[in-house]
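Help needed: design a sequence for this.
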């Protein structure tokens, strides 16, 4: 039986969150310490732990079938590879940063200045779109130290919390793009492996949908039931059950996490009581 080969980053936050996603999809991986390859016990999958920057070429060469990697890496080294699914974790920005005491108004201020980065293709493309030319100093490693040791006047690097910039006396001045973990695939996936990927995608979407939703139970007076139900679209429509106390009903529904507090405020304003909110592990639609 065919096995789907998936590449994930060897270590770090992206590695941990990728394995957590697979675990939430019900996939158990036999992963010993320092292993570079592991098999799933209950799913036709083999996991390869690779350097993030090497993964796009492994996909092109057909060494792996699919991969979870940062969108920033895909933009830098794998623009020819498709984004199969956005995964919503390991979010960051790719940004320009300069020393705190340097005045910055626009990208024109970097004319004739050296820019240290691990993302030369991304930087060149961005500067070309702005009608400028970048003078790049390629660094693989701690890019943020470059201005402090006189290697560069500015950097382009990933920014998560901004604490690393702060520690190195730098400030973020321009965001090239926002990035998150994505699922990508080889251009030449066989039919049997595509079937396995479709099954995996179904599970991933169920996990992500549950993560981004809340299950809500509340009590509603019947004379305001129509208005309260209109605020709760649910998956198809809310579930409404009569309560033992006459004139009241119990309403069950699902709310998007992004709209949660606005909807709750409206429900309370329209007479809803005893609102109970529960996390959703998975949503199978």
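Sure. Designed sequence:
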């Amino acid at each position: 039986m065919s096995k789907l080969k998936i590449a994930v980053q060897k270590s770090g936050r992206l590695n941990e969150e990728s394995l957590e996603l697979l675990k939430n999809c019900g996939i158990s991986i036999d992963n010993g310490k320092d292993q570079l390859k592991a098999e799933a016990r209950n799913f036709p999958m083999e996991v390869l732990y690779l350097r993030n920057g090497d993964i796009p070429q492994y996909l092109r060469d057909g060494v792996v079938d699919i991969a979870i990697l940062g969108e920033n890496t895909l933009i830098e080294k794998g623009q020819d590879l498709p984004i199969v699914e956005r995964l919503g974790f390991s979010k960051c920005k790719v940004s320009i940063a300069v020393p705190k005491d340097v005045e910055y108004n626009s990208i024109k201020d970097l004319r004739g200045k050296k820019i240290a980065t691990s993302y030369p293709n991304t930087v060149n493309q961005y500067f070309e779109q702005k009608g400028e030319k970048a003078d790049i100093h390629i660094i693989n490693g701690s890019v943020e130290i470059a201005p402090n040791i006189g290697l560069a006047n500015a950097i382009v690097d990933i920014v998560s919390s901004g604490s690393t910039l702060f520690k190195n006396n730098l400030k973020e001045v321009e965001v090239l793009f926002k990035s998150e973990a994505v699922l990508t695939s080889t251009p030449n996936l066989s039919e049997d492996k595509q079937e396995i990927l479709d099954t995996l995608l179904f599970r991933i979407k169920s996990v992500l949908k549950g993560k981004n939703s809340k299950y809500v139970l509340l009590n509603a007076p019947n004379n305001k039931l129509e208005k309260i139900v209109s605020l709760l679209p649910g998956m198809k429509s809310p579930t409404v059950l009569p309560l033992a106390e006459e004139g009241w009903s119990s309403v069950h529904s699902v709310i998007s996490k992004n709209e949660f507090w606005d909807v709750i405020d409206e429900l309370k304003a329209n007479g809803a009581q005893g609102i109970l909110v529960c996390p959703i592990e998975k949503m199978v639609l």
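Residues 92-179 form a domain with the D-Maltodextrin-Binding Protein; domain 2 fold (CATH 3.40.190.10).
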